[in-house]
Design goal:
It contains twelve helices and ten strands. Helix content is 41%, strand content 12%. The chain has 340 residues and is α/β, with parallel strands linked by helices. It has a six-stranded parallel β-sheet with strand order 7-6-5-8-9-10, sandwiched between helices. It has a four-stranded parallel β-sheet with strand order 1-2-3-4.
Length: 340
């Protein structure tokens, strides 16, 4: 059982592609999440992605109900010795109320195996892990209409949160336009904070070369905007695992990302020219250099062969079996009573 239910139109594509890969994997049955099935149903392994989403609620009584259900689920997992497998999408500790943190910590305590999406994800002493790279989006985007790249058009596309550094991108872009007047920037995606949304709108009102579209984007709109750009800027203050980086590379667009061990490994994997870096703070020089590199043209496509989803399905199946063996070790023949 995964920690997500039947996919909806707004479900993260990673989750949908993983579900499809698991369903194609021989010897594996995928069970969509529901609280009823999680507590009373039959399954061998519970696979958690973003555990805090299990407690998300719009009202206090729904939140209280989910907390109670999580406590019961933890008890069921302990009694049945059902192992938890957790995909480490980010490396930050649990956040929220003390109750939520306690529940997520208890769930982490039931983890028998961690799936790391990047070689740079830290290991946790005493908990085995499996490295399964985040799959690409090429098959997902294949049926969607794409645009030809527009020279000197950069873009940021995706959910806009304070830690993603979009405000610094706007400051750097305003300076960059002074050096390269033909430069254009599209910022598209829903802003999680109203003040952040207002700040972006104010920049767009002042800069004719900045286009802001602050709403939730469909997958088709995401592909249209990314493919219309010559390069994608991801001005995150910190980057560990980024589906947005892989999405842009899957659409054959070079990316600008923070310089760290994770992004350096990604650059070495996909080939020269596709991954560009900025230092501690995004600068106008980095944006101009990115636009110039994209204008020079790209050779071939980024190498994403290590991120095939069929391989990911088989690797997940192996991880589940390892977790199950760790949670329910068979007694050796030597330890069995005589005659059994």
């Amino acid at each position: 059982m995964q920690s997500f239910g039947v996919p909806r139109p707004t479900t993260n594509p990673y989750i949908v592609m993983l579900q499809d890969a698991l369903r194609r994997t021989p010897g594996l049955e995928h069970v969509p999440f529901s609280w009823r099935t999680a507590i009373f149903g039959r399954y061998d392994v519970f696979h958690v992605h973003w555990g805090d989403t299990l407690l998300a609620a719009g009202s206090w009584h729904t939140r209280a109900g989910k907390r109670a259900a999580m406590a019961v689920l933890l008890g069921r997992l302990a009694v049945t010795r059902t192992p938890v497998v957790r995909t480490v999408h980010n490396i930050t500790p649990p956040e929220g109320s003390r109750v939520d943190v306690a529940l997520m910590t208890a769930l982490e305590g039931r983890t028998k195996l961690r799936i790391r999406l990047s070689p740079t994800t830290p290991e946790v002493p005493g908990i085995p892990s499996a490295l399964i790279l985040h799959g690409h989006y090429r098959d997902w985007f294949a049926p969607m209409a794409k645009n030809a790249a527009t020279p000197d058009r950069l873009a940021y596309v995706g959910l806009i949160k304070p830690y993603k550094g979009v405000e610094q991108l706007l400051v750097a872009f305003e300076e960059a336009v002074a050096d390269r007047e033909q430069l254009r920037l599209t910022v598209a995606g829903r802003a999680s904070d109203p003040d952040l949304g207002r700040a972006i709108t104010e920049f767009a009102d002042r800069l004719p070369s900045l286009e802001a579209d602050l709403r939730y984007l469909s997958e088709e709109e995401f592909v249209s905007i990314v493919s219309a750009a010559s390069a994608i800027v991801l001005p995150y203050r910190h980057m560990h695992n980024s589906g947005s980086a892989l999405a842009a590379l899957s659409l054959d667009r070079p990316i600008l990302v923070p310089d760290n061990e994770t992004t350096r490994l990604l650059a070495a994997e996909v080939g020269p020219g596709w991954v560009h870096f900025f230092g501690e703070e995004l600068s106008s020089e980095s944006l101009v250099a990115l636009a110039e590199a994209a204008a020079a043209g790209m050779d071939g496509r980024p190498d994403l062969s290590a991120r095939d989803w069929d391989d990911a399905g088989a690797a997940h199946a192996a991880a589940y079996r390892d977790a199950l063996a760790a949670a329910r070790p068979r007694r050796s023949a030597r330890s069995r009573p005589e005659g059994t």
